[in-house]
């Protein structure tokens, strides 16, 4: 679990801000969920045979012996909350959430035991337009972040109920004679979670899978139609994708459609987002049957990708650095700084601390990355003015009222500085 400070935290915050802005533009509302839920919510919702539940969960007893877990993902908690609050009766919900998730995985670049996800869920819409809109929204987020060209979309139809059961039977029947040749994980999955064998990365297992029965052949007419509608919608929207017949994802709750966004830009942990439809989850958790679909992205990975592919201007935390003649005049400098903040919304104004001479303060101002130094000294105070010095441009220093200084800064900002 990492600490993120300054530039790294700012990078994650920018990703989150863009996600929120796009979700709002798509008419999604926020839901804030607890980080801790009953362990059973996840074991039932995600499935006891999944890696997430069987190997990666931070589960513990509370003081009264109730079994709890740090959330490994947001969908199960979101569904629980909607059921408990009665948000699903005769209404649709479009919700987003953002925050830390916990998985006891082996840490490496892009994979952390605490990571941040941004997720969105649609409840109450059975048609493929919900799946398509979630994909459209995710694509809009990638564009807003400037990484649209660096991610690829894969989709698959994995059936549900009877079709899935028939397929699993055929898959297990096909794989069982090869049991001793499968890799260790896949051998364990043969009993626990055979569908997951399909996305094994082990070459020898992949070779065995070449002749395996095809999931697509087991889908019923409605499931085929549903997948066809989604593809038509994506084509009409000009959203490119690849159908990956091996894509299954690591959660039992998925039905019909699964999607995953990957990249080549950040190393081995190449999935930046994923999701799908989960029409059975609400009923499984005790609610009335409600169709649902959603996705979540890993904001840490998205931030890494963004650093890798966009040049971006170097990180700066300050726009205006306020310096004080002789290190004195603190109250006047504080008042001037605040007057400037009020007049230029969003401007980052930082007061020098720790005294010292003007040249030492200017060095600090330069190092802060600020575009301007605002000087408060005796002459300025006597005339109720400030001096504004351009730190990155060859322009004369201005002796100006706060209003004039604010106007100069606003002008420079609208000129694209
Ligand atoms: P997920 O694919 O497990 O899906 O996680 C979503 C994203 O979170 C992944 O694509 C990845 O970018 C990121 N992520 C996952 N684990 C880690 C980790 N250990 N370190 C860093 N990033 C990570 C879900 O969690 C589903 N709840 C998505 C969903 C929402 N399906 C329907 N609605």
Can you offer a commentary on this structure?
By secondary structure, the protein is of the alpha+beta class. It folds into two domains: 6-309, Bira Bifunctional Protein, Domain 2 (BirA Bifunctional Protein, domain 2); 320-414, Rossmann fold (3-Layer(aba) Sandwich), CATH 3.40.50. The protein is built from 15 helices and 16 strands. It has helices at residues 6-25, 39-45, 51-54, 75-84, 128-144, 161-175, 184-192, 203-209, 221-236, 281-284, 299-309, 330-343, 358-367, 378-382, 402-414; strands spanning 29-30, 36-38, 59-61, 67-70, 93-102, 114-123, 151-157, 242-243, 255-263, 271-277, 292-298, 320-324, 349-351, 372-376, 386-390, 398-400. The protein has an eight-stranded mixed beta sheet with strand order 1-5-6-11-10-9-7-8. It has a five-stranded mixed beta sheet with strand order 13-12-14-15-16, with helices on both faces. The chain has a three-stranded antiparallel beta sheet with strand order 2-4-3. Helix 1 packs across helix 5, helix 1 packs across helix 11 and helix 5 (128-144) runs parallel beside helix 9. The chain is elongated. The model has no long low-confidence stretch (mean pLDDT 96). Histidyl-adenosine monophosphate binds at residues 73-75, 103, 105, 110-112, 115, 117, 119, 121, 271-276, 294-298, 300-301. Histidyl-adenosine monophosphate is lined by residues 73-75, 103, 105, 110-112, 115, 117, 119, 121, 271-276, 294-298, 300-301.
